[in-house]
Amino acid sequence: MVDVAKRKAQLEARLADLNERLEQIEEELDSHDSKDWEELATEREGDEVLESMGVSGQQEIRMIEAALHRIEEGDYGFCTKCGAEISEERLDVLPFTPFCRNCAA
């Protein structure tokens, strides 16, 4: 069975890292105020990449928060769809996954 305390610490560390990264992305997006059209175009291209990273980070944050909620409820490590135990190998790769391998497919 899964060492829940270890997983919780891992999830909380990842959550803190993601929150810090999102703050940096937000600061970078707010820092652009170029008046030069060429520079502005280059900044816009970079902004699109940053925004995509931000959206991806927000999605992962929601999944981590849901996993932390499952830990608090005592449901962590069990598939939310079929109730089967999620393999340790799967949780090593995706510690926030709510599904076993069969239900995820």
Give a description of the structure.
InterPro entries: DksA-like_N (IPR048487), DnaK_N (IPR037187), Znf_DskA_TraR (IPR000962). This is TraR/DksA family transcriptional regulator. One of its GO terms (molecular function) is zinc ion binding. Keywords: Coiled coil, Metal-binding, Zinc, Zinc-finger. This protein has 105 residues and is mainly alpha-helical. The chain has a domain of 72 residues. Helix 1 runs antiparallel to helix 2. The two termini are 22 Å apart. The relative contact order is 0.16.
Question: What is this entry, summarized?
Answer:
It comes from Aliigemmobacter aestuarii. This protein has four helices and no strands.
Keywords:
105 residues; mainly alpha; 4 helices; 70% helix; elongated
Topology diagram in text:
Elements: H1 4-30, H2 37-73, H3 88-93, H4 101-104
Helix pairs in contact: 1-2
Domain DnaK suppressor protein-like N-terminal: 8-71
Domain Zinc finger DksA/TraR C4-type: 74-104
Coiled coil: 1-35
Instruction: Name the helicity range.
Output: over 70%
Q: Ranges with pLDDT <50 over ≥5 residues? A: none
Shape, per Cα inertia axes:
elongated
Note the total helix count.
Answer: 4
Organism: Aliigemmobacter aestuarii
Domain DnaK suppressor protein-like N-terminal: 8-71
Protein name: TraR/DksA family transcriptional regulator
Zinc finger (dksA C4-type): 79-103
